[in-house]
Design a protein that fits this description.
Elements: E1 8-14, H1 21-39, E2 46-49, H2 56-68, E3 72-79, H3 89-94, E4 99-103, H4 117-122, H5 125-138, E5 144-147, H6 153-172, E6 176-180, H7 194-201, E7 204-208, H8 210-217, H9 222-235, E8 237-238, H10 249-269, E9 273-276, H11 290-297, E10 301-304, H12 308-320, E11 328-337, E12 344-348, E13 363-366, E14 378-381, E15 387-396, E16 401-411, E17 424-429, H13 433-442, E18 448-452, H14 457-467, E19 470-474, H15 480-493
Parallel strand pairs: 1-2, 1-3, 3-4, 4-5, 6-7, 6-9, 8-13, 9-10, 16-19
Antiparallel strand pairs: 11-12, 11-18, 12-17, 13-14, 15-16, 15-18, 16-17
Helix pairs in contact: 6-12, 6-14, 8-10, 9-10, 10-11
């Protein structure tokens, strides 16, 4: 998975020449101290101090540099003094990187007994940042605003969270998604406008024939298969029939061959996400089950039945969450438990749930699938643990993309499922089963989602802000009447 320390956010402070060299020297010193403190904090990317900008040309140049810098994923701005905001217009007009506006000040407390006009001339963030905020509002620019003292844990946490989103957005702008075959025939929500997606998010989505993949799979050597089968045995509890000498050991080797070939295809093409469909498996022995699960665990995006939007979001959210405990997985609301006292959603899929969300050591098993017309596929079987989570769906509404989030509370799987040999999660949608499900349907949410144990609604909101796309949130406060109005208002706002 990505090492986020290879990326950086630039700390840029605004001022002007009005205050004289001594004040500007102090502005620079203070800014460098803040940037250094943030860089040494829990923020997962590097925080890089940049010299104080004091003129329209300096601002334009630093924005242009940020656009072209290969490791810069965003900028953090702060107005230590008053920085007349018309100076920022040219720079902000060309800025292509996300912006976080840090509304802070160098001193935490007012020095009651010593405060004088020199102090006031230097420490003007309270109104300098408002001037800067106005011009961005006037220009209708999306940005993140964080308010508070720069050493406060809550402030650092917000910057850290946003920086993860900035990295994910940075990667999505150049992400390559490969589709092996088309989407499942006649299905609406998994389809969409790939040209609009590239215009909006930057990701490219293109198709390769399944035969192109099969040609690579067929080049895999027995030695490579031997090594991967040994890894399977070391990592998972293998079903008896899959063990060496078992009557289905050959199927395990077929699954390993598919994984090795699929991984090679993705690496050679620099693809970060992919889709396939059980309707197009020509030349393959079985539908990739364990292969897709393990590739997701290594950070690749995946979407079933040709669902390229969900595949891209799986990869994007895995990048956001890099290094955090817990996991992110392709998911589907599969069936309901309509017990009036304890209603639940059983989330699962035919095969492809990421083991990053497993509660324990997965079991490696083989069972009939019933569709696809191929040999029985190998898959990892496990339960997901209890805890707070979110389900995220990216859908194409025709004139725009919509990001839909449902906050959920996962619960431990409470009954044995001996005849359901797939990975599964069990959760309660917020605010309750009936409202949550109705809200999802009213908003046009897909049956495929990204299920995340370690990301927050706030991070998805930051992501939507960066790309200027619609966000609909279903949480504890959701009211259906209000949601319907919100959806109507959004039709006007995003027309």
């Amino acid at each position: 998975m990505l090492n986020l320390k290879q990326f950086e956010i630039w700390f840029i402070t605004g001022s002007q020449h009005l205050y004289g060299e001594e004040t500007l020297r102090q502005v620079g010193d203070h800014s460098q101290i803040i940037a250094g403190f943030l860089n040494d904090s829990a923020i997962p990317v590097r925080v890089v101090f940049k010299p104080v900008v004091k003129t329209p040309d300096e601002i334009y140049n630093i924005c242009q540099e940020a656009n072209l810098a290969p490791h810069c994923v965003g900028i953090v701005t702060w107005m230590h003094t008053f920085s007349p905001a018309k100076m920022w217009i040219r720079g902000l007009n060309i800025l292509k990187k996300p912006l976080l506006h840090l509304h802070t000040q160098f001193n935490r407390d007012i020095p009651w007994g010593e405060i004088d006009m020199d102090f006031m001339n230097l420490n003007q963030s309270a109104h300098g940042d408002r001037e800067f905020g106005f011009i961005m509002s006037r220009m209708r620019l999306n940005r993140k605003v964080v308010v508070g003292y720069w050493q406060d844990a809550a402030v650092i946490s917000q910057i850290a969270s946003w920086s993860r989103v900035a990295v994910a957005a940075f990667e999505l702008k150049t992400m390559k998604v490969v589709r092996f075959g088309d989407n499942m025939r006649q299905v609406a929500v998994t389809d969409g406008d790939k040209v609009s997606a590239e215009m909006t998010f930057g990701m490219s989505v293109n198709t390769h024939a399944t035969g192109d993949l099969v040609a690579v799979i067929n080049q895999v050597t027995d030695a490579e298969i031997d090594a991967l089968v040994t890894e399977y045995a070391d990592s998972y509890t293998l079903m008896t029939s899959l063990l060496k000498g078992g009557n289905q050991h050959g199927s395990l080797r077929d699954a390993a061959r598919i994984e090795i070939g699929l991984r090679a295809f993705l690496e050679d093409g620099n693809f970060k996400a992919y889709t396939n469909t059980f309707e197009d498996l020509h030349g393959m022995a079985q539908l990739p089950g364990i292969a897709s699960q393990r590739l997701m665990a290594d950070g690749y995006g995946y979407g079933g039945e040709g669902d390229w939007k969900t595949s891209a979001m799986v990869r994007t959210m895995k990048v956001m969450a890099a290094g955090l405990p817990g996991g992110n997985s392709f998911m589907e609301d599969y069936t309901y438990h309509f017990d009036p006292i304890n209603p639940l959603v059983l989330g699962s899929h035919m095969l492809e749930i990421c083991p990053s969300i497993a509660a324990g050591k997965p079991s490696c098993e083989i069972h009939p699938l019933g569709i696809g017309g191929k040999a029985d596929p190998v898959r990892l079987v496990f339960d997901a643990p209890a805890g707070s989570a979110i389900n995220v769906s990216l859908i194409d509404m025709g004139n725009r993309f919509r990001l839909l989030v449902n906050e959920v509370e996962a619960v431990a799987v409470m009954e044995a499922l001996p005849k359901l040999p797939v990975a599964r999660a069990l959760w309660k949608p917020m605010p309750d089963m009936k409202t949550g499900c109705a809200a999802w349907i009213l908003a046009g949410g897909a049956h495929h989602t990204v299920y995340s144990q370690n990301l927050t609604t706030d991070q998805i909101e930051d992501f939507a802000e960066i790309f200027g796309v619609e966000l609909v949130v279903i949480d504890k406060s959701t009211n259906l009447r209000q949601l319907k109005n919100e959806l109507r208002w959004n039709e006007a706002a995003y027309k």
